[in-house]
């Protein structure tokens, strides 16, 4: 254990690099293609699902979620100290930023939804599993993954307050609020298309720019 600010800096840097691993891009390369030129051009699980099918999409979703979970559950231990809750939050945010702004692809990444899922499964599993309900309901009713992602982003801080799972740890609650804002901002093009009625529904053959995840 490295109980110092250097330990926190090391843990956050490692979390960012882990989050930056572009799983969707690498999968496309294994198939001999550049995912950035296919479908929506997004690196996330939704575009992978659209191009390569549900099994591939699910695999990328799981891998991206694992990046967030590993960051808060293991990497944060490099910075073990009395304020370890804040260390976990720092590693969590670093992993999410790595996914959304990967240093390996000119700081162009996914929307952060899958990695955020992994982060909060490590920090607040009960509230995170509960937030899958509004996500699933929104997608089932509208067939818009973006609507589900936005519903989950807005609902998570509310569920954390309702369940009290953070146990008074304001760091986790503030992280949820910040991540929700990041997810909403990253989905601004989706929101615009939803208002215009041009957003792609799940299973549609078209591919607009700016997929979720």
Task: Provide an overview of this structure.
The protein is globular and about 50 Å long. The longest helix has 20 residues, at about 55-75. It has helices spanning about 5-20, 25-30, 45-50, 55-75, 85-100, 115-125, 125-140, 145-165, 170-185, 190-195. By secondary structure, it is an all-alpha fold.
Helix content: 55-70%
In terms of DSSP E residues, the strand content is: under 5%
How many helical stretches? 10
The low-pLDDT segments are: 206-210
Instruction: Note the overall shape.
Output: globular
Compressed to H and E, one letter per element, the order equals HHHHHHHHHH
Short description:
The chain has 213 residues and is mainly α. The protein has helices at 5-20, 23-30, 45-52, 54-73, 84-100, 113-123, 125-142, 145-163, 170-186, 188-196. The radius of gyration is 17 Å and the shape is globular.
């Amino acid at each position: 254990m490295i109980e110092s600010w250097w330990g926190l800096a090391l843990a956050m840097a490692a979390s960012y690099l882990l989050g930056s691993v572009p799983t969707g891009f690498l999968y496309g390369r294994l198939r001999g293609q550049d995912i950035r030129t296919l479908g929506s051009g997004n690196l996330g699980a939704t575009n992978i699902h659209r191009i390569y099918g549900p099994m591939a999409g699910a695999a990328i979703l799981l891998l991206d979620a694992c990046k967030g979970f590993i960051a808060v559950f293991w990497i944060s231990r490099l910075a073990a100290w009395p304020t370890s809750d804040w260390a976990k939050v720092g590693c969590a945010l670093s992993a999410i930023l790595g996914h959304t702004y990967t240093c390996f692809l000119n700081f162009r990444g996914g929307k952060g939804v899958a990695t955020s899922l992994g982060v909060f499964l490590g920090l607040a599993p009960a509230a995170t599993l509960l937030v899958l309900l509004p996500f699933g309901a929104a997608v089932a009713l509208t067939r818009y993954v973006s609507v589900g992602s936005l519903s989950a982003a807005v609902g998570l801080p509310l569920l954390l307050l309702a369940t009290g799972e953070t146990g008074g740890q304001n760091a986790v609650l503030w992280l949820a609020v910040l991540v929700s804002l990041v997810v909403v901002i990253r989905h601004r093009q989706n929101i615009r298309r939803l208002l215009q009625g041009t957003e792609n529904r799940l299973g549609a053959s078209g591919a607009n720019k700016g997929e979720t995840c």
